[in-house]
Specification:
nine-stranded mixed beta sheet, about 325 residues, alpha/beta, three-stranded parallel beta sheet
C-alpha cells in the first residue's frame, strides 16, 4: 500500500507507522521524506492526515479503524473487515455517522480479470448463473491467529459476492485440523437461491498452488485461473440442453452443447493500484467503492456463518439481516 499510494500524484504520502524496527528502517531508506512513527495515535492526531490505510492482523481492525473514524479520517482496511459480524456492523454504522469512507481491500474485486467476468455476466452472455466453484489452495502459510477460512476464503467470498450481487441465504461448511489449533482445510457452501450455489475449497496443505474459479451459466461457462500468465479467463461454448421427448412429456432428453473456447483480452493493471484509486475517488468524488463497508460486512457474515457451521457439524446457518 505504501508503494501504491506513494506513486499516485493525486495524494501525498505523509506518514508510515509500523512496530517492526527492521521494516521501519527499510521504509525510511525508501521514503526519506515521509514521517515514520511507531504509535498510530501520532498519525490520528495529525490534522494534515485525511485518510489512513490499515494493514494489521484482523483482531486489531475494529479498534484501529474505530479510532481512525472517530479522529475524522477516511479508512481503507485490510481484509476481512473485522473478525465478527457485530463489530463489522458497528464499524459500518460509525463510518456513516462520521460521514467518512470505509473501504475494504478486497483486492481481487479490482482485478481486471474479475471486472471482465462481471461485465460478461451483466451482459447476459453466459445466461442464468448456475454455480460458482472456487479452489484456493497451497502449502502454507499457517497463520497463528486465524484458520484457513478467515485467511484465504475472504478472497473467494468477496469475488463471489461481487459477481453474484445478491444476498446469500445460508452457509454450510466442513473443516479439519491436522496441525496446530486452527482448521487448515475447509469446504464452504453458500446458497443464494434454489438454483444457485457457490462452493469454496481452501487448504494450507496442498502440494501445489491453485487459484481457480469455475462459473457455470445456462448458455456459457467460464474458467478463471488467476495464476495463468496470459489467458486468465476462458469462456467455453459448452452447456446442457433439456429437450422434451416427443413420446412422453414426463421424460427429458439431455443434450450437450460443445462449441468453441475464447479468451478475452485482459489488461495488466495492478489490482492494488485500482484499490487505491477507488479509495481516492470515494473521498474526492463520493463514488461508492466496489468493496465498501457494506460489501465487507457481507463477506464477514459469510465467514462467521461458516465458522458457526463447523462448530455445529456442518449445519446450514441462515444469514439473518436486520431490516
Amino acid at each position: 500500500m505504501v508503494r501504491n499510494f506513494g506513486a499516485l500524484e493525486r495524494c501525498k504520502l505523509r506518514a508510515i507507522c509500523d512496530l517492526d524496527p527492521e521494516r521501519m528502517e527499510r521504509l525510511k531508506r525508501l521514503y526519506p521524506a515521509v514521517r515514520c512513527a511507531t504509535d498510530y495515535r501520532e498519525l490520528l492526531d495529525d490534522p494534515a492526515v485525511d485518510a489512513v490505510s490499515i494493514c494489521t492482523p484482523v483482531h486489531t481492525h475494529y479498534p484501529l479503524a474505530s479510532a481512525a473514524l472517530d479522529a475524522g479520517k477516511h479508512v481503507l482496511l485490510e481484509k476481512p473487515l473485522t473478525d465478527s459480524v457485530e463489530s463489522a456492523a458497528r464499524l459500518v454504522k460509525r463510518a456513516e455517522e462520521q460521514g467518512r469512507v470505509l473501504q475494504v481491500n478486497h483486492t481481487f474485486v479490482y482485478s481486471p480479470a474479475v471486472q471482465k467476468i462481471r461485465s460478461i455476466i451483466d451482459s447476459g452472455e453466459i445466461g442464468d448463473l448456475l454455480y460458482l466453484d472456487s479452489v484456493r489452495v497451497n502449502l502454507g502459510l499457517f497463520q497463528p491467529d486465524v484458520n484457513v477460512i478467515w485467511d484465504l476464503a475472504p478472497h473467494d467470498v468477496s469475488i463471489m459476492t461481487y459477481l453474484i450481487d445478491r444476498p446469500a441465504r445460508w452457509v454450510s461448511a466442513v473443516a479439519s485440523t491436522h496441525y496446530g489449533e486452527h482448521e487448515n482445510q475447509a469446504y464452504v457452501t453458500v446458497s443464494y437461491d434454489e438454483a444457485l450455489i457457490g462452493h469454496i475449497h481452501v487448504n494450507w496443505l496442498a502440494p501445489v498452488k491453485l487459484r481457480q474459479t469455475l462459473i457455470g451459466g445456462s448458455k456459457r461457462m467460464i474458467v478463471y485461473d488467476d495464476l495463468e500468465p496470459s489467458e486468465k479467463i476462458r469462456v467455453y461454448e459448452k452447456g446442457v440442453t433439456l429437450n422434451s421427448d416427443s413420446e412422453s412429456r414426463m421424460r427429458a432428453l439431455v443434450d450437450y452443447r460443445v462449441g468453441d473456447m475464447f479468451a478475452p483480452h485482459i489488461d495488466n493493471t495492478e489490482p492494488l493500484e485500482q484499490v487505491c484509486r477507488s479509495f481516492l475517488d470515494a473521498i474526492e468524488f463520493g463514488v461508492r467503492p466496489a468493496s465498501d463497508g457494506a460489501a465487507g460486512l457481507e463477506v464477514v457474515r459469510v465467514l462467521e456463518a461458516a465458522q458457526e457451521s463447523i462448530r455445529k457439524n456442518s449445519e446450514r446457518i441462515p444469514l439473518l439481516r436486520s431490516t
